[in-house]
Amino acid sequence: MTAWLRDEVGTHVRIEGLESVEFGHSAELLAFAVITARNDSESCRDVVLRMRPPPPALLEPYDLDRQFRVLSALAGSAVRAPSVCWYEPTGEILGRPFFVMDRVDGTVYELEAPEAISERGERMCRSMIEQLAAVHTVDVAAVGLADLADGASHLTRELEHWTAERHRVQAAPLPALDRLRAELERAAPSPFPLVTLVHGDAKPGNFAFADDEVSAVFDWEMTTLGDPLTDLGWLELLWMQPVGLASHPGAPAIDDLLAHYTAVSGITPQHRPWYRALAAYKMAVICLIGSMLYAAGHSTDERYALNAYGIPMITKLGLSELGVTEALDDGPVLAR
């Protein structure tokens, strides 16, 4: 790694403070300092290395090149994305591809947040929604991302992708998820007329905070071009779960957050139950993938097995958003 960095930087390099970052589910992270020497003086750059997880991973196809491209394009925009430094696509250095980005100061409140932030929670949440609005108002043509995906087909692509992922891992029929998929297709609205950059995983745990403001937006694996309301449906679904920022008395109600989003983005949410149901389908499938990876021995992350216990509840919630209240068999969703 040091030799590779020396070639990239073009001068003497050493690595200090190498440590694993235990955060998130979808990639492996290493934090360290890159010390470079020039003209008898040294400089230090704190960085994070993001490495492709061993296949099969939770999110496939896992495209680091795409992530690096998106982060590179966002440099200089209003989106507070980490600055990327170097990319190694071959896997020859560490066994798998990786890229290196600047380490950003800030605290991530993924599952828990201290009581001390309760009085500041409203400003933090508003900063988060302002950053989501910044994502949705990026001029994709100006930053070179207009060809990232076919934005007009986004909703169709989402349904097809998560259904294919479900079929990739399921061991037997899953009637409740089948019904949710059918109801989503039956009740699908026309896509939002404005095609935007879509983050794809706009959860509170993917935002870092410093001084009550978002300092960085992380985890761009599912970023695409398409319907911005899919990000809002995902956020709404997560806001129903009493964890992290959403669990504190100072956190605004979701309706207040969405009103602030409309004020800063000019985008008005619509068809909210359908987008929440789509988010529930996506979340249930992701939990199912994790459960099956754990069952097959591809992962030892016990969170994958535990998250699967939420699949019946999430599926039921998605169905209820579309008016389906009858009891349905979930099928085998738990890891053996």
From TrEMBL:
Highest taxon of the lineage: Bacteria
Residues that span the membrane, as ranges: none
Family annotation (InterPro entries): ACAD10_11_N, AGP_Transferase, Aminoglycoside_PTrfase, Kinase-like_dom_sf
Pfam families: APH
Gene3D superfamilies: 3.90.1200.10, Phosphorylase Kinase, domain 1
Domain Aminoglycoside phosphotransferase: 43-251
Name of the protein: Phosphotransferase family protein
Lineage: Bacteria, Bacillati, Actinomycetota, Actinomycetes, Mycobacteriales
